[in-house]
């Protein structure tokens, strides 16, 4: 899980850059409404009550899930163009222990790999992957070091995709569970892929 660097407290309208600082502020208010975020932009949007992000005209939303009981990871991707769903697909894996150990993150990686395979098959020259888990972008662009065999394979797959297709590949972070309908739909499909409701 990505490290939360910003803590937004609605009661004070302030953003704190450490959990200790946020805890001090929490002691000063009654019924605190707060949340931690990876980026300052997400924290600001939370304070302003904004849930809508301006989305690219064409993109592929990805999300992952984990079924603990069945020990299965699920993923889903949705191709969206001009606010319309063009295609959606669920994927699951109950065989590869490396993916299963990563739980939801394993599903996120699975979904992104299948999304890129889809983009390649469609001959897309510009691909925008909308994701809510930071590792999808950060492993791919090298800002996070891929340390496990499965994340190293993910990075290798992304590099191979770029080399073979010459497509412009961009990653676009969306805030999870904030009412972005395509992200919510991908989340729902990923859960279904695991046999969850």
From TrEMBL:
<dbReference type="InterPro" id="IPR002156">
    <property type="entry name" value="RNaseH_domain"/>
</dbReference>
<protein>
    <submittedName>
        <fullName>Ribonuclease H family protein</fullName>
    </submittedName>
</protein>
<dbReference type="InterPro" id="IPR050092">
    <property type="entry name" value="RNase_H"/>
</dbReference>
<dbReference type="InterPro" id="IPR011320">
    <property type="entry name" value="RNase_H1_N"/>
</dbReference>
<feature type="domain" description="RNase H type-1">
    <location>
        <begin position="54"/>
        <end position="195"/>
    </location>
</feature>
<dbReference type="InterPro" id="IPR036397">
    <property type="entry name" value="RNaseH_sf"/>
</dbReference>
<dbReference type="Pfam" id="PF00075">
    <property type="entry name" value="RNase_H"/>
</dbReference>
<dbReference type="InterPro" id="IPR037056">
    <property type="entry name" value="RNase_H1_N_sf"/>
</dbReference>
<dbReference type="InterPro" id="IPR009027">
    <property type="entry name" value="Ribosomal_bL9/RNase_H1_N"/>
</dbReference>
<dbReference type="Pfam" id="PF01693">
    <property type="entry name" value="Cauli_VI"/>
</dbReference>
<comment type="similarity">
    <text>Belongs to the RNase H family.</text>
</comment>
<dbReference type="InterPro" id="IPR012337">
    <property type="entry name" value="RNaseH-like_sf"/>
</dbReference>
């Amino acid at each position: 899980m990505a490290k939360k660097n910003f803590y937004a407290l609605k009661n004070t309208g302030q953003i704190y850059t450490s959990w200790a600082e946020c805890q001090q502020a929490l002691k000063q208010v009654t019924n605190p409404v707060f949340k931690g975020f990876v980026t300052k932009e997400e924290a600001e949007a939370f304070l302003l009550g904004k849930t809508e992000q301006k989305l690219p005209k064409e993109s592929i939303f990805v999300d992952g899930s984990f079924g603990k009981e069945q020990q299965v990871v699920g993923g889903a991707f949705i191709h969206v163009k001009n606010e319309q769903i063009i295609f959606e697909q669920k994927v699951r894996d109950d065989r590869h222990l490396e993916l299963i150990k990563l739980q939801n993150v394993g599903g996120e990686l699975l979904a992104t790999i299948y999304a890129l395979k889809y983009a390649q098959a469609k001959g897309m020259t510009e691909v925008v992957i909308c994701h809510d888990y930071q590792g999808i972008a950060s492993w791919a662009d090298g800002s996070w070091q891929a340390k496990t065999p499965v994340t190293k394979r993910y990075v290798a797959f992304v590099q191979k995709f770029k080399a073979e297709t010459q497509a412009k590949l961009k990653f676009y972070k969306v805030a999870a569970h904030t009412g972005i309908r395509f992200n919510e739909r991908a989340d729902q499909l990923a859960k279904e892929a695991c046999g969850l409701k």
